[in-house]
UniProtKB/TrEMBL annotation:
Keywords: Coiled coil. Transmembrane segments: none annotated. Residues 160-214 form a coiled coil. It holds the Pfam family Peptidase_M23. The keyword Transcription regulation does not apply. This is M23 family metallopeptidase. Signal peptide: none annotated. Residues 239-329 form the M23ase beta-sheet core domain. Residues 1-60, 79-139 are annotated as: Disordered. It comes from Streptomyces glaucus. Residues 105-114 have a biased composition (Acidic residues). InterPro entries: Cell_wall_metabolism_enzyme, Dup_hybrid_motif, M23ase_b-sheet_dom.
Amino acid sequence: MASNRSATHVPPVPGQRDTEVFGYGGPRTDEGPWEEWNPTEESVRPVRGRHRVAKQRGGLARSSTVLGVGVIAAVGAGGMASANTGKPPVSISMPDLPSVGSLISDDDEQEEVPEASTTPLSTLGADSADTPQGASDAGEALRARIMAQAEQQQDQIASKAAAEAEAAAEKAAAEAAAEAEKEAEAKAAAAKKKAEEEARKKAEAERLAALAEQYALPTSSYTLTSTFGQAGPYWSSGYHTGLDFAAPTGTLIKAVHSGTITAAGWDGSYGYKTVLTLDDGTEIWYAHQSSISVSVGQKVTTGDVIGRVGATGNVTGAHLHLEVHSGSGGSGIDPLAWLRSKGLNP
């Protein structure tokens, strides 16, 4: 900038004032005296300050001002567009723009460059939905939605686990109930079988008791000495064919059941023998008697005396030899078992 020559100093003239003073209707007594001001290079030099920046060469300073304004407008328009379109804003950081006066300074000295601003310009033209509060609300909403989905999934897993546990418990209960029912059925079957067995035994006892009233032991005051099938040299067949009741000679011999006398008399090794035929055809043989009290064809009832104990025939002592045959001299039957089947206990 060109410097001006120093003007000739004119001393002030007291009392002379321009009557056309700006802002006042006439001369003021409280002002003055005034001196004429002649600007020089030193007087118009700008004061150096911390807000001055380095001089931009090539006219870049003025053009950058226009560029900055355009960038601000573009970013603002972009922010408004993002607010309108609903897309999230992009944060852009740019340095603070200096004032226009500092950019067009002619000072050649280098000054400090201000630090870049970290304030994002994307918030220009943004509405409340794009502000940090809106972003925070959106984040909270997303977080709440994610937590709700997680809780829902956990509830579903818990519900599934509870359903599986309930199904397992029901299955276990069903199996336990089936097992208990099976055990109950087994116990019931065992109890039924036991009851049936007891009933059968009771019925058999009653039957035997009734038969005992119809049947009687062949003698009294006896001792069993030889049983059916017993082997030994005393018998011609090699084994004993009857049941021996050892008793004193003369002991009474009775009919074991009602029937008919079909034989009475001497029979070799049997001595004196009597045969009693029952109504079902079973034959009862009484041998080795000392005497016979009945005759052939005579009807007798249970307990009637038919003879006396003796020692006739092939014997070693006084006793009653009793044989049981299955009808008309058939095969021999164990007399002890037969008597017990009739409710008697020899």
